[in-house]
Amino acid sequence: MKKRLAVMLLSLLALPMLAQASCESVKAEISKKLVSNGLAESDFTLEIVPNDQADQAGGQVVGHCENDTQKIVYKKLSRDAQSNVPNDAGSSHDTPQ
């Protein structure tokens, strides 16, 4: 019984670290999709911001993580003809349910 309690306690303590890792993995997934759609990694940035700061981040929200408390914001750096993120560039977490 004590082992089970210890495992549950350690799991609860590790949750914040796992949540941040999931944001990084979602960000990496979106970045990979953007690159596979023809954008160079030097042409954009992806930033993880709290929900309440997403509007001030100055980009387009392309994903979310940490139980929808964080947003992933895309910012285009180059000045070519295409200014929008491809429709299929978001993460699997962004599909309508």
UniProtKB/TrEMBL annotation:
It holds the Pfam family DUF1161. Residues 1-21 form the signal peptide. Residues 77-97 are annotated as: Disordered. Keywords: Signal. The keyword Zinc does not apply. InterPro entries: DUF1161. The keyword Magnesium does not apply. Residues 80-97 have a biased composition (Polar residues). This is DUF1161 domain-containing protein. It comes from Pantoea phytobeneficialis.
